[in-house]
Amino acid sequence: MLGTLRFRLTALFLTVVLVFGLVSIALAVRLFQDVTRTESIRELSREAAGLADLYAQAALRSSDEGTLAPAFAARNLELATGDELFYVGLSLFPGQRFGLTRLPRSALEDVDLARDRLVTFEFTPPGDDTRLIAAAQPVRLVSGTEAFGWLVVAKPVTELRAQWLTLLGRLALALAVGVGLAGMLFWWLSRRFTEPVLTLTRATQDVAAGRYDVEIPEPRGSDEISLLSDRFRRMVAKLAEGEQLKRSFLMSVSHELRTPLTAIRGHVEALREGIVSEPEQVRSSLDVIASEADRLERLVGDVLDLAKLQAHRFTVRHEEVDLGRVLDHAYSAFAEEARRREIDYRLEAVPEPPVIVSDGDRVLQVISNLLTNAFRWTPDGGRIELELAAENGTVRVDVADSGPGISTEQRDRIFEPFISNDVNGTGLGLPIARELAVALGGSIELSSAPGKGSRFRLVLPIAVDG
Hints:
Elements: H1 5-65, H2 73-81, E1 84-89, E2 101-102, E3 119-123, E4 132-139, E5 149-156, H3 157-208, H4 224-272, H5 279-310, E6 319-322, H6 323-340, E7 344-348, E8 355-358, H7 360-377, E9 383-391, E10 394-401, H8 429-439, E11 443-448, E12 454-461
Parallel strand pairs: 1-2, 7-9
Antiparallel strand pairs: 1-5, 3-4, 4-5, 6-8, 9-10, 10-12, 11-12
Helix pairs in contact: 1-3, 3-4, 4-5, 5-8, 6-7, 7-8
């Protein structure tokens, strides 16, 4: 559970949210501290200026009119403002008590009290452990004269701390709720993200065990996981198709091998048991055995060639090949059969046959396979043409016959292994020809219609690419 991708994704997302949340809270608290301190100092400064002016006017009236000092004013003002009031300096009301707590100048010896402007600072009153933030305003009875003293308005620093601690608690609660909601959301999202991966994991286990009938859901998006799922689904389909082709190939090979082996075994048993004893019968049985052995040898050779081609383990040489000589060789190999069967057998080539860079033996093998197929399906007295032409950097060799032709449905199937209606053939000649053509950098094209013969065209490049 702890090592799963789903858990790690959720943990990663929550860690990111938590880190950003803590950083945001730290910045918010720091900003709030600065704001509350600035606002508190502004408020204390405003109160200090107003109260200093108020006491200066009261002191002037007391001096001019002989009125008493406002002893009650300090307590009422402290209750109204919620701040503490202090006074430093000469008495504003000589011989009278005026309610303000007097501070000796030594209590603020670290504070540079200016005589012409307001000063803000922090201090601890004598006999008290409470740290205060304060604003001191000079008190002048007459504008422009020297200040009698300073009116100090202060409040505990703990009040500021209490404000941002309250904010910190609320932000922490909000962060906890946010992390909880984000955790549930990320857990759900991680399930959406990892479910295709888990499906692919289970599918790979089935494929590794040789089971290709796994169900992989269609991708629902265009993200990387959906793309991976789609590619994996296609790969499994290709593997399943390849496995089916392999099984069909093995079954076909087994069937094709069994036929000549059965014939050979039957004649050998007949000879061994003396069922066939006449010289003519013995000669006939031996001819059948030799013929089936030749067929078996061709079949095994064709199967090996096709297997090498499909596994890309077939060596192709690159040499200069005189196509005129290759076609003369291929043409001559079938000339006797054409004469014997009275087939109109023709060779048509360009005046100067081109020289290409390819594998001469393999080119000859492809042309021979196409001619073998043509002679197999052309009736006696028919027509077979072997043509050579060159254009646009390619050469083409056409093998045309007057056989029964091939239907549209059969055109692709005849290039599949063991697909043949000829009981004497292996069904591998055309598949090998096509694989060889591809290995040589070319292709085989077919045009045919039932009752109108067939034309197989080998297309090869004159030079090897690169």
